[in-house]
Specification:
The complex is a heterodimer of chains A (109) and B (514). Chain A is built from 4 helices and no strands. In chain A, 52% of the residues lie in helices and 0% in strands. Chain A has a domain of 68 residues: Cytochrome c-like domain (Cytochrome Bc1 Complex, Chain D, domain 2). Chain A has 109 residues and is mainly α. Chain B folds into 3 domains: 98 residues, 2-Layer Sandwich (Uridine Diphospho-n-acetylenolpyruvylglucosamine Reductase, domain 2); 125 residues, Uridine Diphospho-n-acetylenolpyruvylglucosamine Reductase, domain 3, CATH 3.30.465.10; 223 residues, Vanillyl-alcohol Oxidase, Chain A, domain 3 (3-Layer(aba) Sandwich). In chain B, a hairpin with a 4-residue loop joins β5 and β6. The longest helix of chain B is centred in the last third of the chain and has 20 residues. Chain B is of the alpha+beta class and 514 residues long. In chain B, α1 packs antiparallel against α3 and α6 packs across α13. The chains are: A mainly alpha (109), B alpha+beta (514). Chains A and B meet through α2 of A and β5 and α4 of B.
């Protein structure tokens, strides 16, 4: 049976999607030219801070209106057992967003 | 004259260092060359009982490409400036992000954070040094690849490249990480770029699937070493099993560990239990549930009587054996029968599964580690003494019950002499055991800090005298451990160093190699 134009278009699209997917996982070349970058303060908090500060390992730090400047200083210098975090891990701009996220009350977000 | 730098590399004049910094800025841009005290603060904090000044860097370089690193090593060779590489910089208890020696320039590779490839069918990954386990975990989830990671306890903030290059371990069947490494890209001291194994061959697509290539196998010499800068790293991932059954087996008496190891060994060697079994002492698990100050105050190590009260109050064994079964439900059912029969014989074991222990915080985090889920709960250990002091003491032994009591008694005796607690566990590999002890102390207390240093030094001396080698150590004790492995190995390491890095610019002092 002869395929209609629409069927051809659909199967072409599927083939193109298949190519994209298979290339994404199989080619040896460096396709992912962009490195990782943080989206916002909430993401950094969830992916780093919360593992201790929401898990009874470190103290609660949210909803305490801790000064943003204090948070930034602790992140960069560490505090007793808390490790320091470098600008290569959390860049200065993202650190401002993180400190803002932590220091503001949840209702303010 | 006051220096504009907080430290200088050993034997390098300020004039030469100035020139090197100028060249680094040309390569990376001003914003990626850090020299001020404020910028370098996060590179200085360690958990070791030595002055931070001993490990203060002169600068940090934030590279993002292989080409930049090639240019950086050229500058280092010209001015004889030593660099110390870090990836995620979270080798906590082993030296963190600080260099081995004062004045070394940290080459921070965290911003090289691309996941270059994850192959679902062949179950491998190729990543840059700055990729964290969290980043890779999210990527695998997002793309529904059905693969599991194996990672150490600092999971989310650590990464596979740094951990494997330091020969770290994890808790899944892929937990002996270097066994599952496959292919590296390495910038050598002369600026050449080596791809190991099949990666050396143009047009090969087998770099991440066949480890050996042709001729002498080279990957090993780039682990725990300073022969090159690893910029890409391939490793195998575990396909997500259809079923997973974590369990804990508790014992009530310290001497029961002989029986525990004798029971585990055949199950590990035959593969019935496929992951590294952790035999955690009550004091290793207690910080997740209890505060030390609720049971003991004042100086000295915690008495056994208090340990038994903690066990009773928090439903812990003196030994808590964590392991898991992986596979289809049918496979797990068969192996579970073998496991319960083996451990049930003496009548001493209390066997708990998710059914009974899912809400137990210690069991919950151990189960996460055994399935490659992110958790930092093990950091509770640092609350035990407080004050941010920690060193991992990690001697290796045969997987025999008779070794455990000897090692534990010696460790406890030396720790007690310095007023420190035994926070220990044995990790049973295939035929070996890593005895892992977190030497915890209050770094804000100068007396305890001094005691911790002397204690660690004595542990190394006494264990090596009995033939127990340490598999990994913090940067303050690398020379001492290197010495315990004898002069011939040190000479071979040095010969390789001279051949590959004649100016000694790459991480001098790593594993005692210069």
């Amino acid at each position: 049976m002869k395929k209609t134009k629409l069927e051809n278009w659909v199967s072409g699209c599927i083939f193109a999607i298949f190519l994209t997917i298979s290339n994404a996982w199989s080619a040896q070349d460096e396709k992912n030219s962009q490195g990782f970058a943080w989206k916002d303060g909430a993401e950094i908090y969830a992916k780093i801070c919360a593992y201790c500060h929401e898990a009874h390992v470190g103290p609660q730090i949210r909803n305490r209106e801790l000064p943003s400047e204090y948070i930034r200083r602790v992140v960069r210098n560490g505090n007793r057992a808390m490790p320091a975090f470098r600008p290569s891990e959390v860049d200065d701009e993202s650190l401002i967003k993180l400190a803002d996220f932590i220091s503001k009350k949840e209702a303010q977000h | 004259m006051t220096s504009q730098y907080i430290a200088l590399p050993k034997g390098v004049s300020e004039k030469d260092f100035d020139a090197a910094i100028r060249d680094f800025r040309k390569i990376l841009g001003d914003a990626s060359v850090l020299t001020s005290a404020e910028q370098l603060a996060p590179y200085i904090k360690t958990m070791m009982p030595v002055p931070d000044a001993d490990h203060t860097p002169s600068a940090a370089l934030l590279a993002t490409t292989v080409e930049q690193i090639q240019k950086i090593v050229a500058v280092c060779n010209q001015y004889k400036v030593p660099i110390w590489m870090i990836s995620t910089g979270k080798n906590l208890g082993y030296g963190s992000a600080a260099p081995a020696e004062r004045g070394q320039v940290v080459l921070d590779l965290k911003r090289m954070n691309r996941i270059l490839e994850v192959d679902k069918d062949l179950a491998f990954a190729l990543v840059e040094p700055g990729v964290t386990y969290q980043q890779l975990y999210d990527y695998i989830k997002e793309h529904k690849l059905g693969l599991w990671l194996s990672m150490p306890a600092p999971s989310a903030i650590a990464g596979p490249v740094g951990n494997t290059l330091d020969r770290g371990v994890g808790y899944t069947p892929y937990g002996e990480h270097f066994l599952f490494a496959c292919g590296m890209e390495v910038v050598l001291a002369n600026g050449e770029v080596l791809r190991t194994g099949m990666g050396s061959m143009p047009n090969s697509n087998t770099w991440q699937v066949f480890k050996w290539g042709y001729g002498p196998y080279l990957d090993g010499i780039f682990t725990q070493s300073n022969y090159g800068i690893v910029t890409k790293f391939g490793f195998w991932l575990m396909p997500e099993p259809p079923a997973f059954k974590p369990f804990v087996i508790q014992y009530q008496h310290e001497e029961d560990i002989v029986e525990i190891v004798e029971t585990i060994r055949p199950l590990r060697i035959s593969g019935v239990i496929p992951n590294a079994v952790v035999i955690a002492h009550a004091l290793y698990e207690a910080p997740v549930k209890a505060k030390r100050s609720d049971y003991v105050s004042g100086p000295g190590s915690i008495p056994d009587e208090a340990v038994y009260r903690i066990m009773k109050d928090h439903k812990l064994g003196i030994w808590n054996v964590y392991a898991a079964l992986y596979g289809t439900q049918e496979q797990i059912d068969v192996n579970w029968k073998i496991v319960t029969q083996a451990f049930g014989q003496s009548g001493k074991a209390k066997i708990l599964t998710e059914q009974e222990a899912a809400d137990d915080p210690a069991f919950a985090y151990r189960a996460k580690l055994m399935r490659g889920e992110m958790t930092l709960t093990e950091f509770s250990l640092y609350n035990w003494r407080g004050g941010g002091g920690s060193m991992w003491f990690a001697p290796v032994s045969q997987a025999r019950g008779s070794e455990t009591l000897k090692q534990m008694a010696l460790t406890k005796q030396i720790l007690a002499k310095y007023g420190l607690d035994y926070s220990g566990e044995f990790i049973v590999g295939m035929r070996d055991m890593h005895h892992i002890v977190d030497v915890l102390y209050d770094k804000t207390d100068p007396e305890q800090t001094k005691a911790a240093y002397q204690c660690f030094d004595e542990l190394l001396t006494e264990f090596s005298a009995r033939g127990y080698g340490t598999y990994r150590v913090n940067t303050a004790f690398m020379d001492k451990v290197a010495e315990t492995y004898g002069p011939v190995q040190r000479k071979v390491h040095k010969t390789l160093k001279k051949a590959l890095d004649p100016n000694g610019i790459i991480a001098p002092g790593k594993s005692g190699i210069r």
